[in-house]
Structures are given as C-alpha cells and as structure tokens.
C-alpha cells in the first residue's frame, strides 16, 4: 500500500505501508507499489545516459507468426525461448516462421530485449549467426555504434544493477512486461568507446572462463552417479524399452492392500531399483536411523533474518543462495531454525533434486517445505546429499509424490528411504 502525501503529516506506518510524495508519482506516472518502493539510483564516475540517447530507432516489435520446423537454408525465427539467461542464442530448438516478412530481418549489431515472459533478457545479433527474423515478444533497437559499443551494452545487461532496474520497471501481471518506451528510458553509465571495448573484452574473457568451468563441473557431476554406485556395488537395472511392457504390468492384490492404488506408484522399475540396492555390497539402513530430523519451529525476532526458500537452492550446483529478508516480509508458514552443516531436502517437486547443505556461520531459518537433517555421528551429510541426488534414489523418493499441479512428499517419505551403510571412515572417503 502507498500513502500519497501532499503535506507532511504525523502518520504511523505499518509493515505494508510506505510514504511517497505526490509529485514523484505525478512525474513517473506509475502508482503501483513495486515500482515506487525501491527506487533505482545509478551512480557512476562516467556520464549517465538513457538508452534512447544511443539508438537510431524507437524500438520495434517483432513478427507475430507461428513457428514451424527449420530446414537448412531457412531464415531462422528467434524467439524469447531461444535466448538463455546469459544472452546467448540456444541451438537446440531452431525454428523458422510460417511467413517471412523482410521488415523483421535482423542486421548486424541489432539489440533485442524481451518485453514479456522472460522479461529483461537481452540478445545481441551478429550477422555471422545467419539470416534471422525476430518474434513479437522481442523489441529491436538499432544501436548508434558511434556512441555505444554493442558488446558493452550486452555486458551491462548482465549486471545486477541492470536486473534491479528490470525488477523495478516490470509491470505486475499474469506475465510481467516492459514496453519499448520503458526500455528506452534505461539509464546506462557511458564511458568513452575505448573504455567500453575494454570492459566488454574483460567480461567476454570472464564469461568464457565461466563456461569452461561450468562444463568441467557438469562433466564431474555427471560421473558422480556412476562412481558412487560402483563403489557401493550397485548395478543399475536396465529400463524397459518395450512400450507395451512399460505401460502395462501386473501386481498382486496383497501388494496393493493398504497402500496406494495408482499405476505410477506400482511401476515395476521401482521394484528393480529396490532389488539393485539390496543386492549391493552393503546393508541398507533407513535414513531416520542415521540422521536426526530437525523440527525446531521458531518465530524469528530479529528485524532481518537469513531465510531459505525452495527457490534459493541452486539445483545445478547443489548450493544455497542466501538472502536477508526483513522480518515483516517473511511468509506466514512455519519456519525451521537451522544450524551450520544441516542438510536441506525439498519436499516440493522432489524430481528437481533441490538438496543442499547450509554452511553459513550465522543463525538462519528455512521454510517447513524442507526436510532438515543433522549429523549425529553415524553418517556423513555430504555422502547422503550425493546419494539422494543419484537417479536411483531420487526415483524412489519421487515414487511417493502426491498431487499433480503441486507435487509433494512428506518427511516420512525421506526418513524411510533405505541407503547403503558401512564404516564412517569409508563414508568420509566417498
């Protein structure tokens, strides 16, 4: 809620209200709270300009055409979904358009902004990418390269300052959006061209190094399943390739009695996975016998707290992106008090493998949508984290999911999972 004051008054604010002068509302024409609560202030030793000062057009919208399969030699149809979060063009789903209009053909150094959906994403087109047109949810700007170096603008649009501006500008709706006029008002620090090129080259080298390290990390992570299962003597069963056998199978009535009655739960592959674990080198023990389940529900009292939600787990790297949240902005659901070393396992959409260890020194809280496990000297949390992220154990967890639009599991579904156990020394080695 915004309180618009033309005169200063004695007014007691609550946690949902803030003050703003009427003149500032009048000047920016936006009255939504999200826009006015966190003003975007850009400071730089270089001159600050607006995007419209560095372009040769007012921003044009792309083609409103359906996409069709692409054949070699076709003109490519660039859509929002073809642009990744780093501004790179993806090549896994190349499409062309049903009808090609020459006015949407891209030229070298044309710059695209996503206006809705993945709002804020950007793309710098180069003619070496092949002849292309762009879709209607993208806005094209023709850059004045005598003022702004295209790669510098692309680099700036990957900064946190740019994304702060996007967050402020986007209009709340079913699909947030920013229009061409609003993008034209984007403020940018503008060094001399030589300095712009220097910054762009530094960012390019950093991104190349980042991509190289990510590929190495992906290669290592993809081998963890194989290594762990081999060390534990577990042989993965082969998946059924015959469609008829995959979708039709029989179970005994005694196997269903008192249990779930849906087909998904009783797929034969789950029994095969369980047998593979049993036939491994080491005996199986339920997680609840090896780790402590933490359910300390506390209401924070500090004005700002470290708070972890499901979306704060980086599922690719299995790490937590910590954030400080004002007490007044915390959701109303239960909050679990956690300590350094606690293992957090998401109960929501468990197929995403949102499992991470809290390594912070400060006290923190997490949503009760996590199962929180703590070491008690019987098992290493790091090994358990890796085990639960293997495909075989993840499948056995996902088997217990209920709900379709919001698939979840219960604490007991995790605690009853059986995992291979041996001496703690061996666990540390793994």
TrEMBL record:
InterPro entries: Restrct_endonuc_typeI_TRD (IPR000055), Restrct_endonuc_typeI_TRD_sf (IPR044946), Type-I_RS_S_subunit (IPR052021). GO terms for biological process: DNA restriction-modification system. Keywords: Coiled coil, DNA-binding, Restriction system. CDD domains: RMtype1_S_Sau13435ORF2165P_TRD2-CR2_like (cd17521). Signal peptide: none annotated. Residues 196-230 form a coiled coil. Residues 48-208 form the Type I restriction modification DNA specificity domain. Pfam families: Methylase_S (PF01420). Gene3D superfamilies: DNA methylase specificity domains. It comes from the Bacteria. One of its GO terms (molecular function) is DNA binding. Belongs to the type-I restriction system S methylase family. PANTHER family: TYPE I RESTRICTION ENZYME MJAVIII SPECIFICITY SUBUNIT (PTHR30408:SF12), TYPE-1 RESTRICTION ENZYME ECOKI SPECIFICITY PROTEIN (PTHR30408). This is Type I restriction modification DNA specificity domain-containing protein. It comes from Brachyspira aalborgi.
């Amino acid at each position: 809620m915004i309180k618009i004051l033309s005169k200063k008054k004695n007014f007691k604010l609550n946690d949902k209200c803030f003050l703003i002068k009427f003149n500032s509302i009048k000047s920016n024409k936006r009255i939504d709270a999200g826009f006015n609560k966190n003003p975007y202030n850009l400071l730089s030793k270089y001159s600050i300009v607006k995007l419209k000062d560095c372009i040769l057009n007012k921003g044009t919208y792309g083609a409103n055409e359906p996409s069709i399969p692409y054949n070699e030699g076709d003109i490519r149809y660039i859509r929002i979904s073809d642009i990744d979060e780093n501004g790179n063009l993806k090549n896994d789903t190349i499409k062309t358009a049903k009808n090609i209009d020459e006015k949407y053909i891209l030229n070298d150094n044309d710059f695209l902004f996503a206006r809705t959906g993945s709002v804020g994403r950007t793309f710098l087109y180069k003619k070496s990418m092949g002849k292309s047109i762009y879709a209607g949810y993208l806005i094209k700007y023709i850059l004045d390269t005598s003022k702004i170096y295209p790669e510098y603008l692309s680099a700036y649009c990957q900064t946190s300052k740019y994304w702060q501006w996007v967050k402020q500008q986007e209009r709340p709706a079913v699909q947030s959006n920013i229009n061409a006029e609003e993008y034209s008002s984007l403020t940018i620090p503008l060094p001399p061209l030589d300095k712009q090129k220097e910054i762009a080259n530094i960012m390019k080298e950093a991104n190349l190094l980042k991509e190289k390290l990510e590929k190495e990390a992906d290669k290592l992570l993809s081998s963890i399943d194989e290594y762990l299962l081999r060390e534990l003597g577990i042989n993965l069963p082969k998946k059924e390739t015959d469609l008829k056998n995959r979708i039709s199978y029989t179970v005994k009535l005694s196997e269903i009695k008192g249990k779930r009655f849906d087909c998904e739960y009783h797929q034969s592959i789950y029994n095969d996975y369980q047998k593979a674990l049993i036939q491994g080198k080491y005996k199986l023990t339920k997680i609840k016998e090896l780790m402590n389940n933490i359910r300390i529900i506390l209401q924070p009292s500090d004005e700002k707290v470290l708070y972890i939600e499901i979306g704060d787990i980086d599922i690719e790297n299995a790490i937590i992106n910590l954030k400080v949240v004002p007490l007044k902005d915390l959701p109303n659901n239960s909050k679990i008090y956690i300590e350094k070393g606690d293992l957090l396992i998401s109960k929501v959409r468990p197929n995403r493998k949102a499992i991470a260890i809290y390594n912070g020194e400060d006290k923190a809280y997490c949503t009760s949508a996590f199962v929180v496990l703590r070491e008690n000297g019987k098992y290493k949390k790091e090994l358990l984290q890796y085990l639960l992220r293997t495909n075989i154990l993840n499948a056995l967890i996902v088997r217990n999911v209920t709900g379709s639009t919001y698939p979840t599991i219960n604490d007991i579904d995790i605690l009853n999972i059986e995992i291979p156990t041996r001496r703690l020394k061996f666990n540390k080695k793994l």
